[in-house]
Design goal:
Shape: elongated
Strand content: 5-15%
Number of helices: 37
Radius of gyration: 39 Å
Strand order of the largest sheet: 2-3-1-4-7-9-8
């Protein structure tokens, strides 16, 4: 006599899915043959893993295992054997259930609650499926791939069981008392007690088998339907199923959507609707069909199912009734005032911790009243408290948003549809927001597009707009590029493109001008400039392109004036130079603005090696500044022209220009201005190889700036001092200056200076005999020059260095080190640290 495992035992139950149907289909003789093969395959598989056969009844087995892992392996092998067998007729599909417990062994059988639980676990499954109870799942651990199917109530068992499926294969919903796919709401359902009671009674009444919840958009029909259905799961033993119709575009696909949820497959020989009727014919099922309003032509399908399945109940939601016989319409009203307040406060607490106090209660009640008690509007408004405090939200509702009403003219105002009023305004805003590239802040959306918070929130909810936290800590809105292109198409269709583009360009011209003026007039740092508009470069580029194409000279020049620093610091010399030349080529624009632009953007040709064009631009600007006695801008332009003339070889005129610039700055007496002019003289000395004098002047510059530990204005003298000390032979001192300059260049995004620093460090490394490091640094500097379009700081010295390093390393090693240096910023940083 076989010995049953005792103690902790895993019980494995099996049976054949649809055995009665299979018997009718195959006939007695072929069915008995298939049953015999099935028994042999399973017995062999289970025995190989130590399974003990406890009982066999009809097409069912009960096996016992002393190990949960062994039982899982046996189940896997058994299903594999059935799947691989070449059945002469229809394959035999077996469901298997596993549960681990401590059954009582008596007279060669097991008794106790664990036996019943194992049998119910098996009964919940489908052919080909293996189900595990929570205890079995815990014992087999993470080595086995399982799918969490959640908690289910099993017939005749008081306590629910958490079930798991072995493997990831797709099966229809489990055959349990809580057989449902109802969505689990993210938030608690608030209010509607009377509606819940009334709907429960309707759905359980014998004569009400089709109930349609109707109401305004945003009135909470879907949430009410789901909340009611969740309370009735145990009343419908064959399942409560949720069918979402919102994604369905055409009525002809409604039957397929229902079939997919119910696990009904279409066959060539039988229409899908007939398969649905057969599936539901004798089942006590509740079908929740959501968002039917745009598919009303498919409503007769519901009628057919209800007539074919006498125990089926359908709960539909729609903005209008389905107009079917025996349909019972249940209008969903807005929330009563106290329920509305409770919903608003609860949703607000989830985001901002809002509480209803005596101080703010009147404001909150008035917000709910203004929103007509519509749940969707209340939830949107609660989310909006991230942007606005309650009092300001109410003020905006009163001033600008009388928009949660409207809809059909023949219904009371408080029941008019939310969507009907929002959509036109929402469509206009959606189209206008397409002008932004890279997103925008709330203020820009309001100023350029006339945005209001309701429409913004609605676009966010529809995923047409996305939100992130901007650099200033406030909200920033943006679109996926494909959606933005569609928005621009809508803008063109509305013939609003030119007006919207002009507002957009005007907005960013003003913002960028203000950021640049803050440096020029108030001495704010470049860092503050970047904080103001550094993240708006894409918008500025789009605005400038439109202004150039439209021939808006003044607007284009304003944008170039404000954006120059962005292009220059980020090493975008080619882009900045092209845009600047286009703007300057337009006729019109204030002469003063043109001069301001000229003196700035001449740096683009200067650093790209076109000294003739750079000098021309400086000369034109200087002529204007002299005529209009603009001494500060004149001093700046003179200093820059001095450096250009010095590189061209006219040292006498270069010194004359630099001295004039210094005299003008000294007359004003501002230390930073004097430092700026002195740096021009220092650079002239460095060009002429007077390195000792250059070092003296650059040290004076640093002292005048009074920010020796890394202020952004110290970057040019730090680099120049490092370069000069190399030539003087003080390599340690040179390294200290250059490493500081590299760090600061990265912080302030000055790509030109970063590339120049790498090339100076390459000279330093060569002096120390570190030829590979020198070549990697040279590669890093070349990569930056290539990306910016900048010319070498000292072409002759660069050529000498390249030749010397190639001679030391050989062509192959030299080229490899160049590639390494160019390949990654990380490699360049490591090399900086190894210069020594």
């Amino acid at each position: 006599m076989r010995e049953l495992p005792i103690g902790i035992v895993t019980l494995l139950f099996t049976d054949i899915e649809g055995s009665t149907r299979l018997l009718q289909q195959l006939g007695r003789e072929r069915y008995v043959s298939a049953l015999s093969v099935h028994r042999r395959l399973l017995r062999e598989a289970f025995a190989r893993h130590g399974g003990v056969e406890v009982d066999t009844q009809g097409d069912s087995f009960l096996f016992a295992f002393g190990s949960a892992r062994a039982s899982v392996a046996a189940a896997v092998e058994g299903q594999r054997a059935l799947a691989l067998y070449r059945w002469p007729d229809e394959p035999v599909r077996v469901r298997i259930g596993l549960h681990t417990g401590e059954p009582v062994a008596a007279d060669g059988l097991y008794a106790g609650l664990d036996v019943h639980r194992a049998a119910r676990v098996m009964s919940a499954g489908h052919g080909g499926q293996v189900l595990l109870s929570q205890t079995t799942r815990d014992l087999v651990g993470s080595e086995v791939e399982v799918r969490d199917l959640g908690e289910h109530r099993l017939k005749d068992l008081a306590e629910p069981e958490w079930l798991f499926q072995l493997g990831s294969q797709e099966f229809p919903p489990l055959k349990t008392i809580s057989n449902t796919n109802l969505p689990v709401p993210a938030n608690r359902f608030v209010g509607r007690e009377e509606e819940l009671v009334a709907l429960r009674a309707l759905l359980l009444a014998v004569d009400h088998r089709l109930i349609t919840l109707t109401g305004a958009g945003g009135s909470g029909k879907s949430r009410l339907a789901v909340a009611t259905a969740l309370e009735l799961v145990e009343e419908f033993p064959n399942g409560v199923f949720f069918v979402e119709l919102a994604p369905i575009a055409e009525p002809k696909h409604v039957a397929a959507a229902i079939a997919q949820v119910l696990g009904v497959r279409e066959t060539p020989a039988r229409p899908l609707i007939e398969g649905l009727k057969d599936h539901l014919a004798d089942k006590r099922t509740l079908l929740v069909v959501d968002n039917f309003e745009h598919l009303l032509k498919a409503a007769p399908i519901v009628s057919e199912l209800v007539h074919a399945a006498p125990r089926l109940v359908v709960l539909a939601t729609s903005r209008e009734r389905l107009r079917l016989s025996h349909e019972h319409e249940y209008p969903v009203p807005p929330l009563p005032e106290m329920d509305a307040l409770a919903l608003f406060v609860e949703r607000a607490q989830a985001t901002e911790g809002l509480e209803a106090t005596e101080k703010n209660r009147a404001v909150l009640v008035e917000i709910c009243r203004r929103l007509d008690g519509l749940p969707l509007a209340l939830e949107l408004a609660a989310a909006r408290l991230k942007l606005l405090p309650p009092a300001e939200l109410l003020a905006r509702l009163e001033q600008r948003l009388p928009l949660l009403t409207g809809g059909a003219r023949d219904v009371p105002e408080r029941q008019r549809t939310l969507r009907a009023t929002i959509e036109p305004q929402e469509q206009r805003l959606f189209a206008r927001l397409g002008v932004f590239a890279g997103g925008c802040g709330l203020g820009a959306a309001e100023e350029v597009c006339g945005a209001d918070l309701d429409a913004l929130q609605s676009l966010l909810e529809k995923s047409l707009l996305r939100q992130a936290r901007g650099p200033d800590g406030g909200p920033r809105f943006w679109m996926l590029e494909t959606i933005r292109e569609y928005a621009l198409d809508r803008l063109a269709a509305a013939r609003e493109v030119e007006a919207a583009r002009h507002r957009h360009a005007e907005h960013y011209a003003t913002r960028s001008e203000q950021a640049e003026d803050a440096i020029k007039k108030y001495g704010v740092s470049d860092q503050e400039y970047f904080e103001r508009i550094g993240h708006e470069q894409a918008n500025i580029a789009v605005a400038l392109r439109w202004a150039l194409d439209a021939g808006e000279a003044a607007l284009a020049l304003r944008l170039v004036y404000g954006a120059f620093r962005l292009w220059f610091r980020r090493g975008q010399f080619r882009e900045g130079g092209r845009a600047s030349e286009e703007a300057l080529a337009l006729s019109g624009g204030p002469p003063e603005l043109r001069a301001q632009v000229l003196t700035r953007v001449s740096d683009f040709p200067k650093f790209q090696g076109d000294l003739v064009r750079a000098a021309e631009m400086k000369e034109e600007a200087i002529a204007f500044f002299r005529e209009y006695d603009d001494e500060l801008d004149l001093a700046s332009a003179l200093k820059d022209l001095a450096e250009i003339v010095g590189v061209q070889g006219d040292t006498a005129r270069a010194h004359q220009l630099a001295e004039e610039a210094l005299a003008l700055r000294r007359a004003v007496g501002v230390p930073s201005g004097i430092a700026h002019a002195l740096s021009g003289l220092a650079e002239l000395e460095r060009m002429q190889k007077n390195f000792g004098r250059a070092i003296e002047l650059h040290n004076e510059v640093l002292n005048l700036l009074d920010e020796p530990e890394g202020g952004e204005r110290t970057l040019p003298p730090l680099h120049s001092l490092g370069d000069a000390w190399i030539h003087c032979g003080h390599l340690d001192r040179a390294r200290d200056y250059l490493v500081k300059a590299v760090s600061l260049s990265g912080e302030v995004e000055d790509m030109y200076c970063l590339g120049a620093c790498f090339e100076s460090l390459a000279r330093l490394a060569e002096r120390r005999g570190r030829f590979r490091s020198a070549t990697r640094l040279l590669g890093a500097g070349a990569r930056i020059r290539e990306s910016t379009g900048a010319a070498p700081d000292d072409p002759q010295e660069l050529e000498r260095l390249q030749t010397a390093l190639c001679a030391q390393l050989g062509d192959n090693v030299y080229e490899a080190c160049l590639r390494e240096g160019a390949a990654s910023a990380a490699a360049s940083s490591e090399t900086v640290g190894n210069v020594g």
